[in-house]
C-alpha cells in the first residue's frame, strides 16, 4: 500500500464535492449534455464546467463535442482504485475490531472468574 498515490488523491478530491457526486449519479443513468447537467444544480455554466473539469481530470468522466453540444459520460472503472483502497482498509479495520472483540471478551471472562 503506497502512502501517497496522486491518482487516488485526485479521485477522492473529485468525489469530495456533493455537486460532483450528484453529476456522477446523473451520468450513471446515461450520458448527458453539459447544459442538462447544469440545470438541476442551479449553478452557472462556468462553475459546472469547472466541476466537470475536476471529474475529467480524475478520469471519472469523458466528454466529447458534437457541433456545439458537449456530452459527458461516466467511466465506472475509474472508481476501481478507490474500491481497492477501501477494501484494504476495511479488511485492516475488521481485523483490528475482531482482535478488540476477543480482548474484551477475554477480560469479561476473567472478571467473572
UniProtKB/TrEMBL annotation:
InterPro entries according to UniProt: ArsR-like_HTH, HTH_ArsR_DNA-bd_dom, WH-like_DNA-bd_sf, WH_DNA-bd_sf
Cited Gene3D superfamilies: Winged helix-like DNA-binding domain superfamily/Winged helix DNA-binding domain
Top-level taxon: Bacteria
Domain named HTH arsR-type: residues: 1-94
One Gene Ontology MF term: DNA-binding transcription factor activity
Entries under NCBIfam families matching the protein: HTH_metalloreg (NF033788)
The protein, known as: Transcriptional regulator
Organism, scientific name: Sphingosinicella microcystinivorans
Lineage per the UniProt record: Bacteria, Pseudomonadati, Pseudomonadota, Alphaproteobacteria, Sphingomonadales
